[in-house]
Design a protein that fits this description.
Largest sheet of chain B: none
Protein name (chain B): Cytochrome b-c1 complex subunit 7
Oligomer: heterodimer
Structural class of chain A: alpha+beta
Number of helices of chain B: 5
Distance between the termini of chain A: 115 Å
CATH topology of the largest domain in chain A: Cytochrome Bc1 Complex, Chain A, domain 1
Number of domains of chain A: 4
Shape of chain A: globular
Strand order of the largest sheet of chain A: 1-2-6-3-5-4
Distance between the termini of chain B: 39 Å
Helix content of chain B: 55-70%
Pfam families (chain B): UCR_14kD
Number of helices of chain A: 21
Radius of gyration of chain A: 32 Å
Helix content of chain A: 40-55%
Number of strands of chain B: 0
Order of helices and strands of chain B: HHHHH
Family (chain B): Belongs to the UQCRB/QCR7 family.
Strand content of chain A: 15-25%
Organism (chain B): Podospora appendiculata
GO biological process, one term (chain B): mitochondrial electron transport, ubiquinol to cytochrome c
Largest sheet of chain A: 6 strands, mixed
Chain lengths: 544, 124
């Protein structure tokens, strides 16, 4: 017989639980099916990438080819980003914000080096409203003077004040690696003179160039295909089909070099190497990033990846490896930040670690771990909306094949330790880009770390046409001193003068200097300098 | 809050506007500010938040010219003189430059108030 106390509320709940658990399981099972890749389509001339998991929320973004790489003047991308969702011809910025709030939506704008993203996150049924809003923002923003001075400038200054040493170092590393284009800073620092380029008129002109159908892509995550094709066509009608003047997009070239910037506060050091581009099939790079790691997977522990072990010796420092993939280039970086001395120590340790990877001392277990990490990073990146969205949009506007998750995972699994070894060796033998920001008295130079700033002479001799000899220092190449070079040049000038001028100029070229070599505390035989020089040249010529 | 005005009523009716325009010009000339080289918008009282904000939104050149006109007028007023007749503000120069900005700001404030006191009616 069951006693009454056993039939309390708690036990009743416990009895019900299996049933409830079954319900919950069913719910999870539906969600756990893997997310599809973005499917590129074309709706009324607009490039659209969409995927739909039938969830309650939607993320809709306009990805424009207007990242810092494409800005014609410094700071324009940032200006355009901050001008998003400001006054348009139809409604004010305040109304846009309040209406979005009423619908429970979020409006954000951000940029990468290649893309400018205007994104709206909202409930699924509000698709028409937010499609109209995004189209209105890109085609009808007014770019008013007072908004620029009262709102945009303030936000830019506030964001500049927040830039840390790592961000500055990453920008410096990109600049050393790619010079212009991808080397343009992601966010101009407060020391960058942008005031002469950045104003509402230049931003409006840049918007006109960039916001055209051939320069943008609409990326939708969680919107039905029917809804998109119904609403994009009427609302994006006002967006011009082609840009009035196409953006100049020279191909990226990797240079490599070193940059050092003094800064108070914490120090940062970025070691960068040529990495994998967007859509390039180089799974080794992804696995190498997973192997170097840096970010701890568990709390209260530095973790067990190679960079984590390197930081263990210098508490307070943080090191992390990542691959920045762009449409036609990539940059594999090791970012180290912390107290200057700790940064120095970690930098030395991490180069040592990279060298040991190149020597092939990676255990089988580490390789398996690194592949698993790379796989997880890839899958979680494509699933969490933010980065996946930007990647899908960026590959669409650059005409790169969008990320095919299943294929890439298979490629990752095929990485062997030999391939990894070769990849690490390639990094160490190529030119590195090193950026040091902070206490330069302590932070090491690339040479101190044993990294090469110039590629092998072997690779240089491969393409003699690409690197023509620099003619500025012909005298250096001839193997004479600068004084000697000047003397020869002036003699030639004097001798080519007209007769009467030459007679006057000739004595100026004659020098009468005697010198004697002292040896053992006694002067040697005094010699005439001019005669000695002539004799020297003859012996040199004979030797050559 | 601007005082009630008949202007919108009159502007809507061209015949009335044409009839009253000479009277308005006569009034403006009689008001005496044109003889000091001022414009009508220079007379807008700047001792309130809206107008101060509108003054900040003036382009630098217009702002400089406005200060110049006001200082010249103050000087003339102190010395009990008028400008020579060829320097008086001409009717075609007497265009509103600050009024539209003040109006724009007032609209912004009105919109904000309207949105702040919004009542949401749920359709479903």
């Amino acid at each position: 017989m069951i006693s009454r106390s056993a039939l309390t509320r708690g036990s009743q709940l416990a009895l019900r639980r299996p049933c409830a658990a079954k319900l919950a399981q069913r719910g999870y099972a539906a969600v756990a099916s893997p997310k599809a890749s973005y499917e590129p389509t074309d709706i009324a001339g607009v490039k659209v990438a969409a995927r739909d998991d039938h969830g309650p929320t939607t993320r809709l973004a306009v990805v424009a080819k207007a990242g810092t790489r494409y800005e014609p003047l410094p700071g324009l991308t940032v200006g355009l980003e901050e001008f998003a969702f400001k006054n348009t011809q139809k409604r004010s910025a305040l109304r846009i914000v309040r209406e979005a709030e009423l619908l429970g939506g979020q409006l954000t704008s951000y940029h990468t080096r290649e893309a400018l993203v205007l994104q709206a996150n909202f409930l699924r049924e509000d698709l028409p409203y937010f499609t109209e809003l995004l189209a209105e923002v890109i085609s009808q923003t007014r770019y008013t003077t007072h908004e620029f001075h009262e709102e945009v400038e303030d936000v830019i200054h506030a964001k500049q004040a927040k830039l840390g040493a790592v961000a500055v170092a990453l920008d410096a590393a990109h600049s050393a690696a790619f010079h212009s284009g991808l080397g343009a800073p992601l966010y101009p620092t407060s020391n960058t003179p942008v005031a002469s380029y950045l104003n509402e008129n230049s931003v409006a002109a840049f918007a006109e160039v960039t916001y055209s159908k051939d320069n943008i892509a609409v990326v939708a995550d969680g919107a039905s295909q029917a809804g998109l094709s119904k609403w994009i066509e009427p609302f994006f009608k006002a967006v011009p089909a082609t840009s009035p003047e196409p953006l100049s997009t020279p191909a990226s070239k990797y240079f490599g070099g070193e940059q050092r910037i003094p800064k108070t506060g914490i120090s940062a050091l970025v070691l960068a190497f040529p990495g994998a581009a967007l859509g390039a099939s180089s799974p080794e790079t992804a696995v190498l990033v997973g192997l170097l790691g840096g970010n701890s997977s568990i709390k209260w522990s530095p973790g067990f990846s190679i960079l984590s072990k390197a930081t263990a010796a210098a508490p307070g420092a943080h090191a992390q490896a990542s691959n920045y993939a762009y449409s036609d280039a990539g940059l594999l970086t090791i970012e180290i930040s912390g107290a200057p001395s700790a940064v120095r120590k970690v930098a030395e340790e991490s180069v040592k670690a990279l060298r040991s990877v190149a020597d092939g001392s990676v255990s089988k277990e580490d390789l398996v771990k690194a592949i698993a990490k790379a796989k997880f990073d890839l899958l979680s990146q494509s699933e969490t909306s933010g980065t996946g969205l930007v990647h899908a949009g960026a590959s669409l506007i650059h005409g790169v094949k969008p990320l095919q998750v299943a294929e890439t995972v298979k490629a990752l699994e095929s990485v062997t330790s030999d391939k990894l070894k070769a990849a690490a060796k390639g990094l160490l033998e190529g030119k590195a880009s090193v950026a040091a920001v902070g206490d330069l008295f302590v932070l090491p130079f690339a040479e101190d770390l044993g990294l090469k700033k110039r590629s092998h002479s072997r690779t240089a001799s491969k393409s003699p046409l690409r690197n023509p000899p620099i003619m500025t220092f012909a005298w250096k190449a001839a193997g004479i001193t600068y004084n000697r070079y000047l003397a020869v040049a002036s003699r030639v000038v004097r001798r080519s003068l007209k007769e009467e001028k030459r007679l006057a100029a000739e004595p100026r070229g004659e020098t009468e200097v005697r010198f004697a070599k002292w040896s053992g505390g006694k002067p040697g035989e005094p010699k005439n300098l001019a005669e000695a020089n002539a004799a020297d040249i003859i012996t040199r010529a004979g030797a050559a | 809050m601007p005082p009630p005005s008949l202007a919108p009523f009159i502007i809507k009716r061209p015949w009335l506007l044409n009839m009253l325009k000479p009277v308005a010009q006569l009034y403006a000339n009689a008001a005496g500010y044109r003889q000091l080289g001022l414009r009508a918008d220079d007379l807008i009282s700047e001792e309130n938040e809206t107008v101060l904000q509108a003054l900040k939104r003036l382009p630098p050149k217009q702002s400089y010219d406005r200060i110049f006109r006001i200082r010249r007028a103050v000087q003339l007023s102190l010395s009990h003189k008028l400008l020579p007749k060829n320097e008086w503000t001409k009717p075609e120069e007497d265009v509103p430059y600050l009024g539209p900005l003040v109006e724009q700001l007032e609209n912004e404030i009105k919109e904000r108030e309207a949105l702040d006191t919004l009542e949401v009616v749920k359709k479903h």
